[in-house]
């Protein structure tokens, strides 16, 4: 995510730590910590419905249960409960936070609060078949086992950005993959690959033919990951958005889903 942009409204960038909207009703009252100067405020966020869970919620595993089990990890939809949502925000904040010399802990708390606020915003303003936060955790041998630690997360959103659609034939919407983050201690253990597999399965279940994401052109590790997952480069930021103002150039990568295969 670029500095100055908001996690509430932006399609934040894809990054792995170390590699430098008919509304479906839900219901849960959760406490969202926001910060003003050095004072923390408790803000109630209403999500309409029953207990924050869809009526088809299966065994606490989300609308679809496990989407995929790969490389020793299982990927499922995030459970809309306060504790898990805060954990998701923590994972993404740790991956995207840029350390500062002074008051780093305080700035991290501000940033984590903004990430959590953005998550609440997307859940409240997106139908459940147009936005999902997927989480990765160690694969369990039994459904009765306690839930494991979340080690990675990714956001999947239905979008219709013309800059991307011009490269996609015969469709007017696609799935946008963003906010992919893996805890530092679990890098290079195929967590991100499992998350991308989960996005593939979700695209089939939702009936979308294409997935798209953005990455930094000079992030060779991330580019290799996406290429291995089947994504290809179709465009990049124009020079006037990068070279002239010192921003890193981003590229758009797309993948055709396995829908119909």
How many individual helices?
Answer: 5
Query: CATH architecture, please?
Result: 3-Layer(aba) Sandwich
Terminal Cα separation, in Å?
34 Å
| CATH third-level topology | Aminopeptidase
Morphology call: globular
CATH homologous superfamily assignment: Gcn5-related N-acetyltransferase (GNAT)
CATH hierarchy, class: Alpha Beta
Count of separate structural domains: 1
Helix content: 25-40%
> Could you give a short account of the major beta sheet?
8 strands, mixed
Which class do the helix and strand fractions yield? alpha+beta
Question: What does it look like?
Answer:
It is built from five helices and ten strands, in the order ββββααββαβαβαββ. It has 261 residues and is of the alpha+beta class. The longest helix has 22 residues, at 104-125.
Topology (SSEs and partners):
Elements: E1 28-36, E2 39-47, E3 66-70, E4 73-77, H1 82-96, H2 104-125, E5 131-138, E6 152-159, H3 162-165, E7 174-182, H4 191-206, E8 210-216, H5 220-228, E9 232-236, E10 250-256
Parallel strand pairs: 7-8
Antiparallel strand pairs: 1-2, 3-4, 4-5, 5-6, 6-7, 8-10, 9-10
Task: Briefly characterize the structure.
With 261 residues, the chain is α+β, with helices and mostly antiparallel strands. 25% of the residues lie in helices and 28% in strands. The protein has a single domain (28-256), classed as Gcn5-related N-acetyltransferase (GNAT) (Aminopeptidase, 3-Layer(aba) Sandwich).
């Amino acid at each position: 995510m670029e500095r100055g942009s908001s996690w509430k409204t932006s399609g934040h960038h894809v990054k792995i730590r170390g590699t430098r909207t008919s509304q479906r009703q839900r219901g849960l009252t959760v406490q969202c910590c926001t910060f003003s100067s050095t004072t923390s405020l408790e803000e109630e966020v209403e999500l309409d419905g029953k207990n924050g869970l869809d009526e088809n919620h299966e065994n606490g595993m989300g609308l679809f249960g496990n989407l995929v089990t790969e490389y020793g990890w299982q990927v499922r939809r995030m459970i809309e409960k306060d504790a898990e949502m805060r954990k998701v925000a923590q994972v993404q904040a740790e991956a995207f936070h840029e350390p500062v010399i002074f008051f780093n802990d305080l700035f991290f708390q501000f940033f984590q609060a903004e990430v959590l606020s953005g998550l609440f915003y997307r859940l409240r303003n997106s139908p459940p078949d147009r936005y999902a936060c997927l989480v990765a955790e160690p694969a369990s041998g039994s459904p009765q086992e306690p839930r494991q630690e979340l080690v990675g997360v990714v956001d999947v959103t239905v979008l219709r950005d013309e800059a991307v659609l011009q490269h996609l034939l015969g469709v007017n919407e696609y799935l946008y993959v963003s906010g992919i983050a893996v805890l530092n201690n679990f890098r290079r253990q195929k967590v991100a690959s499992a998350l991308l597999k989960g996005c593939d399965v979700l695209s089939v279940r939702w009936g979308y033919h294409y997935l798209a994401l953005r990455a930094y052109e000079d992030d060779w590790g991330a580019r290799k990951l996406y290429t291995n997952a089947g994504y290809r480069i179709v465009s990049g930021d124009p020079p006037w958005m990068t070279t002239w103002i010192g921003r890193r150039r981003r590229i758009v990568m797309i993948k055709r889903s396995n829908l119909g295969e």
